[in-house]
TrEMBL record:
Record's keyword terms, sorted: Membrane, Transmembrane, Transmembrane helix
Residue ranges of every copy of the TPM domain listed in the record: 128-205
Organism: Novosphingobium organovorum
Source organism, top-level taxon: Bacteria
Gene3D superfamilies: 3.10.310.50
Protein name, UniProt field: TPM domain-containing protein
InterPro entries with a match to the protein in the record: TPM_dom
Pfam families, sorted: TPM_phosphatase (PF04536)
Membrane-spanning residues: 46-68, 88-109
């Protein structure tokens, strides 16, 4: 998959808008496409990793204190340094603080930060963001409740398809899998616009048998790609 951050060209935007227009001419479905750089900041995960590293460092020091105390003596202390309980606690606190800060700093590099995020957490956050975006921008905003959101989140390498009430009652959620696979096959090769177009086409094919387009159908949701 092409590395984020991805910004599509005007030609790509036009291609996706045209694909949405074609799909909507075949059914009563209203398709919204969103391309996100990421779905969450994952600050809580980064802090959890930093805390875990600090705790591991404290555990190692508790099990093998001599190397830490010897290094401190060699680098900073004079020959008459005495290891009191207060001095040991201060050393432990300094080590924990340095480890915490160091882990937090290296996670400022996005590739490492996202590599350390568990897959289920990424999936859950992308799903939550997609559902939230759908509720804000598409849910209940069409006359027949036939909105469909195609949501692609680049840094997590994940996508979601969320359908409005009328479509959700007719289409099994597993059916969207074909549209997802059609999209991701292109996205993995860096063809983001082609992937979104393929998903739009598949969604149109899925919706059409259940909700054929009426003669007086009007366009109720934007056909353009939304980048966030």
């Amino acid at each position: 998959m092409k590395q984020p951050h991805v910004t599509l060209s005007p030609a790509d935007h036009e291609k996706i808008s045209a694909a949405v227009t074609r799909a909507e001419l075949q059914s009563a479905g209203e398709i919204v496409t969103i391309l996100a750089d990421r779905s969450d900041g994952y600050t809580d995960i980064a802090l959890s990793w930093s805390a875990a590293v600090a705790l591991v460092a404290l555990g190692v020091m508790a099990s093998f204190p001599a190397p830490f105390m010897g290094t401190y003596d060699a680098l900073l202390a004079d020959w008459g340094h005495e290891w009191t309980p207060r001095a040991i606690i201060s050393l432990a606190a300094a080590i924990a603080t340095l480890k915490f800060a160091g882990m937090a700093l290296i996670q400022l590099w996005p590739p490492l930060k996202f590599a350390l995020i568990p897959g289920p957490v990424k999936s859950a956050r992308v799903h939550e963001r997609a559902v939230r975006a759908f509720r804000i921008g598409a849910q209940g905003r069409t006359t027949g409740r036939t909105g469909v959101l195609i949501y692609l989140s680049m840094r997590e390498h994940r996508a979601e398809i969320v359908a409005d009430e009328a479509i959700a009652t007719k289409v099994d959620p597993q059916v969207w899998g074909d549209a997802m696979q059609a999209m991701l096959a292109h996205v993995r090769e860096g063809r983001i616009a082609d992937g979104l177009c393929a998903a739009v086409e598949q969604v149109g094919d899925i919706v059409r048998p259940h909700f054929p387009r009426a003669d007086d159908e009007i366009n109720e949701l934007p056909n353009r790609l939304i980048e966030v």
